[in-house]
Design goal:
Low-confidence stretches: none
Strand order of the largest sheet: 2-1-3-4-5
Number of strands: 12
Largest sheet: 5 strands, parallel
Strand content: 15-25%
Number of helices: 8
Order of helices and strands: EHEHEHEHEHEEEEHEHHEE
Helix content: 40-55%
Mean pLDDT: 86
Shape: elongated
Length: 226
């Protein structure tokens, strides 16, 4: 699953940067707009924005106008930021379909927590990324592997290696290619380290270790026996 896009709309660049920095630490892709008109343009250009953080007081087009414009076409979650703590403002926000209403000054950590909670409610929460084949189940999110329903303990590199094999079933992979993808391009060690890891991985996988076929003089291929 790719990074979720969040549009941060505020005419104060310092405020945008603060919010952006906290969101990026949580691996969100952050877009910025300095006024209402720019926000609307970006929203309709990008199309896949998951959530909008929207300031009320802005030049050209205020937050309420932006909200009305977007709500005419989309149910994208919107968090409104305002310097006021006026109940009438808050009620207007909910009437316009605002999902959350946060008064300045606020804690960036609390804002990010609200963002994550809203995204979970709207079906954008982190989904488990699971690979399965031939009795092996590899959960990339939980970093767990089971063979015929029994969990096996793998080192970080063994886990990365098995993931790469399972994602490339039936494809002959050279040792160089495996080094580049699992150990990264900056690895200058001996390619025989792959053979050592494969040997340990096969041992831990029991008879399923036979799925990792050796291609003599080249590398390996992960293939489930039919």
């Amino acid at each position: 699953m790719g990074k979720l896009k969040i549009l941060v709309v505020d005419d104060e660049s310092r405020m945008r940067k603060l919010v952006k920095d906290f969101l990026m630490k949580k691996d969100f892709d952050v877009l910025e707009a300095g006024d209402g008109e720019q926000a609307v343009d970006i929203f309709f250009e990008e199309k896949d924005i998951a959530l909008i953080i929207l300031d009320v007081m802005m030049p050209k087009m205020d937050g309420w106008q932006v909200c009305r414009e977007i709500r005419a076409h989309s149910r994208v979650p919107i968090i409104m930021l305002t310097a006021k703590s006026d109940e009438r403002d808050e009620l207007m926000g909910f009437d316009l379909g605002v999902d959350e209403y946060i008064s300045k000054p606020f804690s960036p950590k609390i804002l990010v927590a609200r963002v994550e909670a809203i995204l979970r409610r709207s079906g954008h929460g982190e989904q488990e990324d699971v690979l399965t084949c031939g009795g092996i189940e590899l959960n990339k999110t939980a970093h767990m592997v089971s063979v015929d329903g029994k969990n096996i303990e793998l080192s970080f590199k063994e886990f990365e290696l098995l993931t790469y094999f399972m994602e490339n079933q039936g494809i002959a992979l050279s040792r160089e290619k495996i080094l580049n993808h699992v150990w990264n391009y900056d690895y200058f060690g001996d390619a025989r380290t792959i053979d050592t890891h494969v040997k340990k991985l096969r041992s831990k996988m029991g008879d399923k270790g036979d799925y990792i076929k050796t291609i003599w003089g080249m590398g390996y291929k992960f293939e489930v026996d039919q």
